[in-house]
Design a protein that fits this description.
CATH topology of the largest domain: SH3 type barrels
Order of helices and strands: EEEHEHEEEEE
Distance between the termini: 50 Å
Number of domains: 2
Radius of gyration: 20 Å
Strand content: 35-45%
CATH superfamily of the largest domain: PRC-barrel domain
CATH class of the largest domain: Mainly Beta
Number of strands: 9
Structural class: mainly beta
Oligomer: single chain
């Protein structure tokens, strides 16, 4: 990991001390005093992608926008047009299907993993699909 603008004389190692949905506390090697911490305050932390430990539901927004989402029961839910960030989890906004706008929470009960390419398959929970839209009358 590196800090930019360069505030220290070398790259640092980072350890996550604690984290939740809203914030995280990290510790950098070589940053042991208040003076050291003040030198890095306001710096951006840079890391190579291969150094990150990404989970199965982590993906960059640019890799998701425009991808088609398909539910096992309801079929085509449209394409992802927006990603809303909420304190609990991200929410995909899908448009272009018979169900109108569909909001999909990015959580494990709905999504097992995100493939690198192609359609994304989900398991929509009851109540997330508006079955009263005119085009959805022909759907299950």
């Amino acid at each position: 990991m590196a800090l930019t603008p360069p505030a220290l004389d070398r790259d640092r190692f980072c350890r996550i001390v604690s984290a939740d949905a809203m914030s995280g506390l990290v510790r950098f090697s070589g940053v042991d005093t208040l003076d050291d911490a003040e030198k890095v305050a306001g710096c951006l932390v840079l890391a190579r992608e291969d150094e990150l430990d990404l989970g199965p539901l982590d993906a960059a927004a640019e890799d998701l926008i425009g991808r088609r989402v398909v539910d096992e029961r309801y079929g085509d839910l449209g394409t992802i047009t927006e990603i809303m960030e909420t304190p609990a989890n991200d929410v995909w906004v899908c448009e272009g299907s018979a169900y109108g706008e569909v909001l999909i929470p990015v959580i494990e009960p709905v999504l097992d993993s995100i493939p690198d390419a192609g359609d994304i398959f989900v398991h929509i929970m009851d109540g997330l699909i508006d079955l009263d839209t005119p085009d959805s009358k022909e759907r299950p």
